[in-house]
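Project standup — Tuesday

K.O.: blocked on the structure for the chain from last sprint. Re-posting the sequence here as requested.
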Amino acid sequence: QVQLVESGGGLVQPGGSLRLSCAASGRIFSTSTMGWYRQAPGKQREAVATITSAGSTGYADSVKSRFTISRDNARNTVYLQMNSLKPEDTAVYYCNGRGIYREYEYWGQGTQVTVSS
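H.V.: unblocked you, prediction finished:
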């Protein structure tokens, strides 16, 4: 089984930046589609960014041009660089990994991001 552990969350002022990291155990990482999701209080969990094993990326409209997802297969790690943060970005951010046919899917424990002055 793959374990995903997020880190890098915290409190930041509007306009600031954070970089989230997700470290994956096991040898399945290089063939998995990875993603970042977030859930704010009172709202449903939503997809923020995804990256395939081939490196293709996709972003939610709300974060496009501000967030960048990347992966380092040698380190079994996926990152989310978040710039120009807004208060509405405040949420718990979760790392996700899945097979191409969703034959498996794993979630991290989440890391809190708070954007406030």
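K.O.: great, moving the ticket to review. The radius of gyration is 13 Å. The mean pLDDT is 94.
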